[in-house]
């Protein structure tokens, strides 16, 4: 986890030396040669890309740019900026320098993933929507975000070492679009025909519609036009045309990433309880199966004369496979109106999950040898750094839980114990970082007891939390044995560590806390994790929920070491993720519990609105309204108010009493879209906000601005509206 013990370091070194002698591996572990990629530029590139994506998400989430307005930006990116970029690069591409074996290796890998996902989906999916899933799921697993996210990453890694790799992005992307996507479209057309058998669809028409969708894609036809122009213009673009293409093409990267952030807003809300299993399997196929198959196919089929270039290409293929799913897949799902929830949510999740995988994979691929010493130091530093930052997150989360007084209630009482266990674990890791540098065995054993008693507790508290949620869902609060759970949550881990000290044999040469007591410790960790996963899995499966996935990694690493003591690079990557999930649990806890809505978010938002000159929380508005607000309110009051009142205003239970004349904010949003006063939910929120500022509606306690949520609002009496008085 943090480093390697000596008994595994020998195996690690031997596997490293053995891999250096295998065909196609020469150069990967060679020392003294130049690196195949510039890893120092990767983190700034990831920060730039995901920073722009975050800006787009914030703009959409804050309704600065509505979904209708975002479509305009999307049309510019896909119909102007990207075609210009593709055309220019296709024209200047030197086909004599292209490694065609690399391209058909990627094609074979993509085809293998496509057909595997397709066949498995046809076998296990329900008959009602079998063909729609068999069409869209394989496209999700094989079509990568090559241009918006992939190109900046490849440019950062290979611009100074293998600049010719940049051109492969433009050649690999059409593989999915022209050769694999048509098969998925055919399945979707079949599903449409099955859902509406009154419309006759011949086999030729179904295939024709699928091919038409491919040809309508700007990427496809611009690639063809660019290749034709390559031979006509002799790989030289006229100067006046080149400047024009540069102007359009240079706007693509930032616009595409910003648009990607906009498309992520609200997508995870479409995720239902029954979609979790399919979503996890899809992301696994895209981010794990795809990169490994790409790398292995290049290793098997590439015929490069240079062993160094062969290895570099295989590494490049692995990184290419990690690129997340493209937003275009979500567009396909929306066009067919099939599997929208899974595809859009998967696109969002895979985008953010891919970032750490890309960074760790690229870092490991640049290591000239699998020498355990630098890896041990790096893993130890990662664990220490993450523990420090996680401590800050946990302190914040504990303060929020205490101030909100939720720790007195279930299940927050168990959550508080989980946070305390995570806090002690991080402190133990920080102390261990200094203890391993000393030779005092007694101190090391005491710190080990402190560290692993709390770490095992975090595993058990996760299972107990899931179990308590299950009982609460079944309204069996009185049957929750809270006293027994607290004793077991702290006592069982301490007992296990005590038994480990008695039975286990300490490895005197190991400095890694994960291997301090060798195989006995690995078995103990695996058993505790298995119990936690079993409790969580059964409880959450009964509730159709899935929350704590992090334990599966802290288990994969243990089982890998037990059954295969020659780890290799994949094992090292698992170890890094182990360190992240073990000592970075505070980040997850902070995201779930540290941002309390009523204690943190809402007061901060009201204060921010006040400083920005917006409406104060009391609900008062300026006496002089802008013309746009005044006209909107007058139009609504004269032509739409009565109809709206009849449609959405009802008597509803508000606390202990039933209030009349109120409605939900989301009901008004739905009504505005239904009658055509707004084209999407973003515009409807803006419309409702103008009604609120104009004094037509108000929150029942004047606490919130207008939101597309289940918040109570009421119409103000006509004689009191600000807009009419002006």
From TrEMBL:
Keywords attached to this entry: Membrane, Transmembrane, Transmembrane helix
Regions crossing the membrane: 42-64, 102-124, 166-188, 209-232, 244-262, 274-293, 313-333, 340-366, 386-404, 416-435, 441-470, 482-502, 522-543
GO biological process terms on file: intracellular signal transduction; negative regulation of BMP signaling pathway; transmembrane transport
Entries under SMART domains matching the protein: DEP
Bilayer topology: Multi-pass membrane protein
Domain DEP: 663-717
Gene3D superfamilies referenced in this protein's UniProt entry, alphabetically: Rhodopsin 7-helix transmembrane proteins, Winged helix-like DNA-binding domain superfamily/Winged helix DNA-binding domain
Pfam families: DEP, Mem_trans
Subcellular location: Membrane
InterPro entries: DEP_dom (IPR000591), GPR155_DEP (IPR037368), Mem_transp_PIN-like (IPR004776), mTOR-Rac_regulators (IPR051832), WH-like_DNA-bd_sf (IPR036388), WH_DNA-bd_sf (IPR036390)
Domain of life of the native organism: Eukaryota
Keyword Glycoprotein: no
A Gene Ontology term for the protein's cellular component: membrane
Protein name: DEP domain-containing protein
Organism: Callipepla squamata
């Amino acid at each position: 986890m943090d480093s390697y013990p000596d008994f595994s370091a020998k195996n690690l070194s031997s596997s490293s030396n053995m891999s250096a002698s295998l065909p196609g591996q020469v150069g990967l572990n060679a020392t003294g040669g130049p690196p195949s990629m510039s890893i120092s530029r990767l983190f700034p590139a990831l920060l730039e890309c995901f920073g722009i994506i975050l800006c787009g998400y914030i703009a959409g989430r804050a309704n600065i740019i509505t979904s209708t307005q975002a479509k305009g930006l999307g049309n510019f990116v896909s119909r102007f900026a990207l075609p210009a970029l593709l055309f220019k690069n296709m024209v200047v591409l030197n086909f004599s320098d292209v490694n065609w074996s690399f391209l058909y290796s990627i094609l074979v890998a993509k085809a293998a993933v496509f057909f595997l996902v397709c066949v498995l989906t046809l076998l296990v999916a329900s008959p009602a929507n079998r063909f729609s899933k068999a069409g869209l799921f394989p496209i999700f697993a094989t079509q990568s975000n090559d241009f918006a996210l992939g190109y900046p990453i490849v440019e950062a890694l290979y611009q100074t070492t293998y600049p010719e790799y940049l051109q492969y992005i433009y050649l690999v992307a059409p593989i999915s679009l022209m050769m694999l996507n048509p098969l998925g479209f055919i399945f979707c057309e079949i599903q449409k025909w099955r859902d509406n058998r009154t419309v006759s669809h011949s086999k030729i028409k179904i295939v024709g519609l699928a091919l038409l969708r491919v040809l309508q894609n700007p990427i496809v036809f611009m690639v063809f036009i660019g290749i034709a122009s390559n031979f006509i213009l002799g790989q030289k673009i006229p100067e006046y045309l080149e400047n024009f293409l540069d102007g359009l093409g240079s706007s693509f990267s930032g616009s595409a990433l910003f648009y990607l952030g906009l498309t992520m807003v609200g997508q995870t809300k479409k995720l239902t309880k029954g979609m979790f299993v399919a979503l996890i399997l899809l992301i696994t196929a895209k981010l794990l199966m795809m990169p490994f198959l790409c790398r292995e196919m290049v290793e098997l089929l590439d015929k490069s004369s240079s062993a160094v270039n062969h290895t570099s290409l295989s590494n490049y293929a692995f990184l290419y496979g990690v690129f997340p799913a493209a937003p275009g897949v979500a567009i396909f799902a929306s066009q067919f109106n099939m599997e929208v929830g899974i595809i859009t949510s998967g696109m969002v999740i895979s985008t953010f999950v891919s970032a750490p995988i890309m960074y760790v994979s690229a870092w490991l691929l640049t290591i000239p040898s699998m020498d355990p010493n630098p890896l041990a130091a790096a893993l130890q530093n990662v664990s220490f750094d993450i523990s420090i930052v996680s401590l800050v997150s946990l302190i914040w989360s504990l303060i929020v839980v205490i101030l909100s007084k939720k720790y007195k209630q279930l299940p927050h009482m168990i959550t508080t114990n989980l946070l305390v266990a995570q806090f002690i674990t991080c402190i133990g890791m920080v102390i261990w970082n200094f203890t391993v540098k000393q030779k005092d065995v007694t101190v090391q054993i005491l710190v080990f007891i402190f560290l692993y008693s709390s770490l095992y507790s975090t595993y058990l508290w996760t299972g107990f939390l899931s179990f308590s949620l299950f009982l609460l869902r079944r309204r069996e609060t009185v049957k929750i044995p809270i006293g027994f759970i607290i004793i077991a949550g702290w006592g069982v881990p301490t007992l296990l560590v005590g038994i480990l000290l008695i039975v286990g044999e300490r490895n005197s040469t190991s400095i890694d806390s994960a291997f301090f007591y060798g195989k006995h410790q690995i078995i103990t960790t695996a058993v505790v994790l298995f119990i936690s996963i079993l409790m969580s899995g059964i409880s959450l499966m009964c509730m159709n929920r899935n929350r704590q996935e992090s334990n599966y990694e802290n288990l994969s690493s243990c089982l890998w070491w037990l059954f295969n003591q020659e780890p290799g690079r994949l094992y090292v990557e698992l170890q890094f993720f182990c360190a992240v999930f073990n000592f970075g649990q505070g980040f997850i806890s902070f995201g779930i519990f540290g941002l309390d809505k009523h204690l943190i978010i809402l007061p901060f938002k009201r204060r921010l609105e006040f400083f920005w000159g917006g409406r104060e929380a009391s609900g008062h508005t300026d006496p002089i309204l802008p013309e746009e607000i005044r006209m909107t309110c007058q139009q609504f009051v004269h032509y739409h108010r009565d109809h709206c009142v009849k449609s959405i205003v009802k008597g509803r239970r508000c606390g202990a009493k039933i209030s009349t004349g109120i409605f939900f904010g989301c009901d008004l949003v739905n009504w505005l879209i239904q009658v055509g006063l707004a084209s999407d939910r973003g515009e409807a929120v803006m419309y409702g906000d103008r009604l609120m500022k104009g004094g037509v509606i108000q929150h029942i306690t004047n606490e919130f601005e207008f939101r597309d949520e289940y918040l109570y609002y009421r119409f103000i009496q006509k004689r009191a509206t600000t807009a009419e008085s002006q």
